[in-house]
Amino acid sequence: MSWAHDIVIVGGGVGGATLAYELGSLGVDVCLLERCKLPRYKPCGGGLTPRAIKELPVDIREVVEVECHEASMEFRTRVICKKESSSPIVSMVMRDRLDHYLVQRAKELGITLREETRFLDVRGTWGDFRVITDKGGIKACVVVGADGALSKVTRKVALQNASPWMWALEAELEPQNPKELKRIGSAARFEFGFEASGYSWAFPKAGHLSVGTGTLSKRCLNLEQNLSSYIQALGFSNWTVKRKALHPIPFRFTPFPKRPPPKAILIGDAAGITDPITGEGMYYAIRSAKIFRTIFQEFGNDLETMHSMYYQRLESQLFQELWYAHKIAYGFYSRPRLYHSVILLFGRSLLERYYNIILGEKNYRNLLNVFVVNLILKGAQANEKRRRKN
Q1: N or C: which end of the chain has fewer CB within 10 A?
Q2: Is the whole-model pTM more than 0.85?
Q3: Domains in the chain and their CATH numbers?
Q4: What is the Cα–Cα distance from 281 to 167, expressed in whole angstroms?
Q5: 46, 141, 145, 134: which is closest to 97 by C-alpha?
């Protein structure tokens, strides 16, 4: 069996669904491939930041489970600081519902959805691709890989996969008594101290709690133990674990090549565009999808130029900024004692400045400069105290 479409998007996650909607709104003949039947569970903290919601092409209030107007930064469950806001600091969703909702909105624009269809390979060149699936071949002018951290499209187009930067283990917890949900509240909790080379989190959802821990350690030997310790410290050890999943969070350490292999456009996790500090990927998946939409409008008649310009824009608009985030993440997480000290010393300032970042008002370059200056000043003050004491 064979079909033909202008653009084939592999992967029905946030990035793929957003791109399908954006291109569908332009009247482009789009085919969206999803290997599972939607809705399907996807391990993810599910926290949508204000800047991510602003970038989404549709109103997603229908699938938001909890709006967190409060966030707390904690060290071994001891609150270091809190942030409160009249507008949601982060909006909690379950990825099965969010992804399905976005795909349904794209279908309303006329895109073709092929569920339970596995991508196998891509052959050909610009304007004349043949996508091989387990259900047959598909002819396409452009192929887009939006199939996540372990992207098969990335491997097939000879562009090196982004390395797993962080490994996350997440569990969905349900109370035996629904009344216990009241003590969760609606605050997003970011926890330090349980994972030496990473952090943990507890996010309230409708009827349950998403709890997870992430680490830079490639061996992941202590994730299970650290997650159990965190759940116990929260007082939720008697809650039922409904799901538990380990998943990689990728990050591309090197810039994109000036002449990428001419086979596919990569967005989101497939391109290794994620936040190396928090592991957030949804905002960057949405942004990369919208960058491609703009490039397609400008250069859609010249596919090779479109391909090259897309990666140049991805580099300038997203990757350069994330390079600063990577320096902060590596400096913190590779030196647990240092970053725990920084959290304890500058926790309030850090939370405030990160909030400005997720609002889209500041960037990681500002954050890096501020904390380098603060560390220098703290060091100078400590030296002055020692001098006076001597």
Answers
A1: C
A2: yes
A3: 2-66+89-161+252-326 (3.50.50.60), 164-250 (3.30.9.10), 328-389 (no CATH)
A4: 13
A5: 46
